[in-house]
TrEMBL record, chain A:
Assembly and oligomerization: Component of the nuclear pore complex (NPC).
Record protein name field: Nuclear pore complex protein Nup85
UniProt key word Cell inner membrane: no
UniProt source species: Tortispora caseinolytica NRRL Y-17796
InterPro entries, per the entry: Nucleoporin_Nup85 (IPR011502)
High-level lineage: Eukaryota, Fungi, Dikarya, Ascomycota, Saccharomycotina
UniProt entry keywords in alphabetical sequence: Membrane, mRNA transport, Nuclear pore complex, Nucleus, Protein transport, Translocation, Transport
TrEMBL record, chain B:
Membrane topology category: Peripheral membrane protein
Primary location class: membrane
Localization, UniProt: Endomembrane system; Nucleus, Nuclear pore complex
Bilayer-crossing regions: none
Protein's recorded name: Anaphase-promoting complex subunit 4 WD40 domain-containing protein
Species per Swiss-Prot/TrEMBL record: Tortispora caseinolytica NRRL Y-17796
Lineage, highest ranks first: Eukaryota, Fungi, Dikarya, Ascomycota, Saccharomycotina
SUPFAM superfamilies noted in UniProt: WD40 repeat-like
WD repeats: 5-46, 290-322
GO terms of molecular function: structural molecule activity
Top-level taxon in the UniProt lineage: Eukaryota
Length: 656, 346
């Protein structure tokens, strides 16, 4: 792997000024985004010495290392859709081989169309190209109807020859046989099974005139080229055709003793058709060209492929690039090794190919594979690809889906670590992830996802929606937590804060329409809402009833209690003595004791200050802070104590 | 995604994303912390200032986010020897300077605090700190929703305070293991020593394996997300100009008890908590040592899947190291802060 160097956009160090920058005691720091291959770099000090700060040093410099384009990511999603089809088949072992071939064919089609589309994109096209070449061969060998035909197709797609230019030049040259590369062209056509091109060239040539003795031979060759049919997958060549080739070979030796150009070339051509090892290998430019020709013309028995390779290898370099290594392994039948190599070229193709190989029983012989001690090659490659998918939002869900398909503890661990980082944009997204959590029994993760999504709804002023969502996924703790947060918000800021929340209003107005768990959890918030209604109506009796319910509510968070007690301050005194009976005052006292021991006074002080800013100044009875002279929580408590003593006395007076 | 001006008035020392990457906090020598929110409307990648506030009485060295489970909470540490916890107050207006309320001050350090880090959420609300007094401290908010009270649950001198060392040469760092399937553990770098601290079966933290070979101060350590791997990875950035990657493979009990006897660090005071009593031990293997920066390396950072490591340093370059899931790490790209086509900015 060669590291390429790029510069940051608007790079802060001038060209050739790195040394000066370093002498100023500067260094570069970097932090990744928590879920993407992006991050920010910034300039910091490396020495701690004071050096004049420059303006560009307050910048964060964006780094984007996501090498795949959206088109490629669409390919990743499309491939997953194809793989997912196989999961629809209920019985894992019973899946029809032909159906798997169809899926594999879909994979190849997707590869081909993507290959065309991403030619000019910054995607790592070399690796993708190598992967496509490899998977095509895998398809030819294990997922096609006829290996011989597929092998020839694969050879012709991998390095297309003869080129269109060659073809045009040969056929337009007059006479074609005088074209210097006529015979190499002819051999190339025959070696690669492109008989129609060879026939076309012969027909426009003047071979018969050039060497009249060869005319009959030429006719027989034309007949052979016309009547050739690909060997069947059972490894049988057309016997009749084979006999004709051998007869022709013998006749040619008997008739053409001369060494004229045409005769020599025709004899060579016939040797190719006979499947002669030396001739084919010497005429081939690449090992795969030779291999295909040997397979097609010598003996189309798959088990002989390793033998062919061993004969070709000393003459033609076999494993010079990565895909050739993988192809070599495929042809040798070493599927796991080939898939592992495919994994280093393109994880999406490798994962899908491994899945299909597994479905076809091709991996049954492989039990263990290196990366995951307890997993197989399929699991390993799917894991690897799933983890790649988790680096980008477009493919997060694809990654999670792949992880779900791998029955490994490692996959569950990876899902657990990654699922909580997936950004949520809708309730549907959240529900999908929660379903995955449910399937994989990831309880903590389900909790985090619920917290995240309901938080997001809460901060976008959809409190009712957030409570409904938490209830819908049966996370009652979260329902309560959201309710108390809304309660605090409403208590501090006022009831108008939720005026625009239609769902919350509906819950208040018709609680019976809500699920029981919401009805139960929402009680304090509903009572607080009633308190505000009573305040607007200046209904003292209702205000005091609501406040008593709230301060005596058993699960009310302690830090809220003092604020509720503050709300009582305006209603203490002779005017309200008949409504604040002794038992009420006793409740206040008990509550105040709780405040003293459990509440952070600093917090309350801050909130009370906020109250002063937000409470409607014209509503005298609400403005409890006007009754308090000291601006601290301690002052509030002191004031409350004084008021309570007075209220107790008033109660006794009232009773006597 | 594009460059943006934080408007700090001095050098930035740390940048921290929140859990989902939707908020960003920065801290600086100007003693302030700034919080930015991602403008999520219509695919925008603009960062909008949420608030800026003076956090400390000296340079703020680190800023970190707590998991959102605990609310919108950040912690900062500083050369003023304190750690502070701040909580967002919903009803304070943005950019008012009051949006982030200081809820706790942890003043235990006897020297500048260099690094802090919140433990992964499954361990509760814990904060580890390492500073110039050579001491690792772990705090815990016993009631995670009450951020006012933090207990110091662990304190240990990792290395004695260096005498006469230049301040710039000394550095202290730490990083938690995020896997909920692994024991509670963190890697701590103090000067040139690097250790794993782990909570053992008796519920105490203990100093365990050493990650050896550093010949300068450790500028940063980073524990990789494990993503289901059967082993752990830890990366270190060092003053000796090297990026190192260590592989930590779990040992069997028998192996680990034998290894424990032979590998107990002889330079450390053998206190009760030096010798681990837990069941979990690792074989430590250096699987990558790279000197490509040819200059001090200050930062190492793992991507979310623990497959790409970024390192940055005095050479003004970020180097990205990648491995196929189990293969060797190789430098896959270099991002330079040096402008290659103009003599513009510096």
């Amino acid at each position: 792997m060669t590291a390429n160097e790029v510069s940051l956009t608007d790079a802060p160090i001038g060209q050739g000024k790195l040394n000066a920058w370093q002498k100023r005691g500067r260094t570069l720091k970097f932090k990744w985004h928590p879920s993407r291959l992006q991050g920010y770099a910034w300039i910091d000090s490396s020495t701690g010495k004071p050096v004049k700060f420059q303006n560009n040093e307050s910048y964060l410099y964006a780094v984007d290392s996501e090498k795949f384009s959206d088109r490629y990511r669409k390919f990743v999603i499309d491939v997953h859709e194809i793989v997912k089809e196989t999961y629809q088949v209920d019985d894992y072992d019973e899946i029809d081989d032909e159906l798997v071939d169809t899926y594999f064919d879909q994979l190849l089609r997707s590869c081909n169309s993507t290959y065309k589309d991403i030619q000019h994109e910054p995607t790592d096209i070399d690796a993708f190209t190598e992967a496509v070449v490899t998977v095509r061969l895998l398809g030819a060998k294990y997922f096609s109807n006829n290996f011989a035909t597929s092998l020839l197709q694969w050879v012709n797609r991998t390095v297309p020859q003869p080129t269109q230019k060659d073809c045009k030049e040969v056929t337009t040259y007059s006479p074609p046989t005088r074209y210097p590369k006529f015979w190499p062209y002819m051999y190339k056509c025959v070696l690669r099974g492109k008989f129609h091109l060879a026939l076309a060239s012969i027909q426009v040539s003047d071979l018969a005139n050039e060497d009249p003795a060869a005319a009959s031979t030429l006719d027989r060759i034309i007949d052979l080229l016309k009547t050739w049919s690909a060997p069947s997958d059972s490894g049988m060549l057309d016997y009749g055709w084979r006999v004709k080739v051998n007869e022709l070979a013998e006749d040619v030796i008997a008739i053409h003793k001369d060494t004229s150009m045409v005769s020599v070339q025709l004899r060579t051509l016939i040797k190719v058709l006979q499947g002669d090892f030396d001739t084919i290998i010497s005429l081939s430019e690449t090992w795969f060209e030779a291999l295909a020709a040997l397979f097609v013309f010598h003996d189309p028995t798959v088990s002989r492929l390793p033998e062919y390779l061993s004969k070709i290898e000393p003459v033609l370099p076999v494993k010079s690039v990565q895909w050739e290594n993988a192809a070599y392994d495929i042809l040798q039948g070493k599927i796991a090794r080939a898939l592992a190599q495919l994994g280093t070229m393109d994880s999406a193709i490798a994962a899908a190919a491994a899945e299909f190989c597994d479905r076809k029983g091709l991996l049954d012989a492989y039990v263990s594979f290196v990366p995951y001690a307890q997993s197989d090659i399929r699991g390993s490659l799917i894991m690897q690809h799933a983890i790649e998918c988790l680096n980008h939002p477009m493919t997060y869900l694809t990654g999670i889906s792949y992880l779900k398909s791998v029955d490994l503890l490692e996959a569950k661990k990876a899902a657990s670590a990654s699922i909580i980082h997936i950004p949520l944009n809708s309730s549907e997204d959240a529900a999908t992830l929660l379903q995955v959590c449910d399937d994989l029994q990831l309880k903590d993760e389900a909790k985090y996802i619920t917290v995240t999504w309901t938080d997001k709804l809460y901060y976008s002023d959809q409190i009712g929606e957030s409570i409904l969502f938490a209830a819908s996924v049966r996370q009652l703790d979260r329902v309560r937590s959201l309710m108390w947060r809304a309660f605090e918000h409403m208590l501090v800021v006022g009831d108008s804060v939720f005026n625009n929340d239609i769902i919350l209003s509906q819950i208040f107005q018709s609680p019976s329409a809500s699920p029981a768990q919401i009805r139960e959890a929402i009680v304090p918030l509903a009572v607080l809402s009633k308190l505000y209604e009573a305040k607007h109506a200046n209904d003292h009796s209702e205000i005091l009833i609501a406040l008593r319910k709230l301060i005596t509510f058993p699960y009310i968070p302690s830090h809220l209690v003092l604020l509720l007690l503050c709300e009582l301050i305006p209603y203490m005194g002779e005017e309200f003595a008949d409504q604040l009976e002794l038992s009420y005052v006793t409740d206040i006292l008990t509550t105040l004791e709780r405040v003293k021991t459990e509440t952070s006074l600093v917090d309350v002080a801050l909130q009370s200050r906020k109250c002063r800013e937000t409470v409607d100044e014209t509503a005298d009875v609400s403005a409890w802070h006007k009754f308090v002279t000291e601006d601290t929580a301690e002052g509030v408590v002191k004031h409350l104590r004084t008021q309570i003593s007075r209220q107790v006395a008033l109660c006794y007076l009232e009773e006597s | 995604m594009h460059n943006f001006n934080t408007n700090h008035e001095d050098l930035i020392h740390d940048v921290s994303y929140n859990f989902y990457g939707t908020r960003l906090a920065t801290c600086s020598s100007d003693q302030t912390v700034k919080v930015f929110d991602l403008d999520e409307s219509a695919d925008s990648t603009n960062w909008i200032l949420n608030d800026s506030f003076k956090a400390h009485e000296a340079s703020v060295t680190r800023v970190v986010w707590a998991h959102p489970e605990f609310g919108q909470v950040i912690a900062t540490c500083s050369f003023d020897r304190t750690i502070k916890i701040f909580q967002e107050v919903d009803h304070e207006p943005r950019t008012s300077g009051r949006r982030w309320k200081r809820v706790a001050v942890l003043p235990d350090s006897r020297g500048p605090v260099h690094d802090i880090s919140f433990a992964p959420v499954h361990l509760g609300l814990k904060l580890a700190a390492n500073g110039a007094d050579g001491t690792l401290r772990i705090y815990e908010a016993i009631e995670p929703h009450n951020l006012y009270y933090w207990s110091l649950v662990f304190e240990k001198v990792v290395v004695p305070e260096p005498e006469g060392a230049r301040e710039a040469d000394a550095s202290y760092c730490l990083s938690w293991c995020g896997s909920k399937y692994a024991p509670e553990q963190l890697v701590v770098g103090s000067l040139s020593r690097c250790y794993i601290f782990r909570k053992s079966s008796d519920d105490k933290y203990a100093q365990c394996e050493e990650l050896p070979g550093h010949t300068g101060s450790l500028r940063e350590v980073a524990w990789a997300p494990s993503m289901g791997r059967s082993f752990e990875l830890v990366a270190t950035a060092c003053q000796d100009e090297k990026v190192r990657i260590f592989k930590l493979s779990p040992k069997s009990d028998l192996e680990s008890s034998q290894a424990l006897v032979s590998s107990a660090p002889d330079r450390l005071p053998q206190t009760a908590d030096t010798v681990p009593t837990g069941d979990h031990k690792y074989d430590v293997e250096l699987i990558g040592e790279f000197d490509d920066h040819k200059a001090q390396v200050w930062r190492v950072s793992w991507n979310v899947t623990g497959t790409v490591l970024a390192s940055a340093g005095d050479d003004g370059r970020i180097r990205l190291w990648k491995s196929a899931y189990s293969g060797p790490f190789q430098c896959m790209s270099v991002i330079s802060a040096e402008n290659k086509c103009s003599d513009a900015t510096d």
